């Protein structure tokens, strides 16, 4: 749904209050259980998912592993040692050893692939490169 509303994004893939209000309204129309959503809860969930995306993106960028959308990092006996060392330093990566992240494709459409960095304190730019 957020991908469909992507035009509401401001700089740095940060969405304004009207965007989150609209997302909450759409979600509440489809809601079958749980508490009603509001703009703040939708924004909070997105920010948490964006941090997970950063973790998955870092795994994908690692040249020692082959990411597959169905099996995650596809770690086997050959690359198990490098994975274990990586997870020791990056524990949030552990769930993706051999498991996919269902939101990956949606986030790849929203966040530029050539973004220089990801993480909690990094803000990604959606600026169009100058051609002059």
Task: Write structural notes for this entry.
- By secondary structure, this protein is an all-alpha fold.
- It has one domain (13-110).
- Helix content is 41%, strand content 0%.
- It contains four helices and no strands.
- The chain has helices spanning 17-30, 39-61, 80-89, 104-110.
- Residues 116-130 have low confidence and may be disordered.
- Residues 11-86 form the Myb/SANT-like domain.
- This is Myb/SANT-like domain-containing protein.
- Pfam families: Myb_DNA-bind_3.
- InterPro entries: Myb/SANT-like_dom (IPR024752).
Mind sketching the topology for me?
Blueprint: H1 17-30, H2 39-61, H3 80-89, H4 104-110
Helix pairs in contact: 1-2
Organism: Mycena rosella
Domain Myb/SANT-like: 11-86
Pfam families: Myb_DNA-bind_3
In a nutshell, what does this entry contain?
It comes from Mycena rosella. InterPro entries: Myb/SANT-like_dom. This protein has 132 residues and is an all-alpha fold.
Largest sheet: none
Strand content: under 5%
What's the total number of strands?
0
Helical coverage, percent range = 40-55%
Integer tally of domains: 1
The rounded Rg comes to 17 Å
Shape: elongated
Q: Could you give the order of the helices and strands?
A: HHHH
Number of helical segments with 4 or more residues: 4
Q: List low-pLDDT spans.
A: 116-130
Mean pLDDT across the residues is 81
Distance between the termini: 35 Å
Give the class from helix and strand content and strand pairing.
mainly alpha
């Amino acid at each position: 749904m957020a991908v469909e509303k992507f035009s509401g994004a401001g700089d740095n893939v940060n969405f304004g209050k009207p965007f989150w209000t609209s997302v909450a309204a759409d979600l509440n129309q489809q809601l079958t259980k749980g508490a009603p959503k509001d703009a703040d809860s939708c924004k909070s969930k997105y920010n948490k998912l964006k941090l997970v995306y950063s973790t998955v993106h870092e795994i994908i960028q690692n040249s020692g592993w082959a990411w597959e959308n169905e099996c995650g990092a596809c770690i086997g006996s050959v690359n198990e040692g490098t994975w274990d060392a990586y997870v020791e330093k990056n524990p949030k990566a552990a769930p993706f050893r051999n498991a996919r992240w269902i939101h990956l494709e949606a986030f790849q459409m929203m966040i530029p692939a050539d973004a220089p960095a990801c993480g909690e304190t990094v803000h990604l730019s959606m600026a169009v490169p100058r051609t002059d």
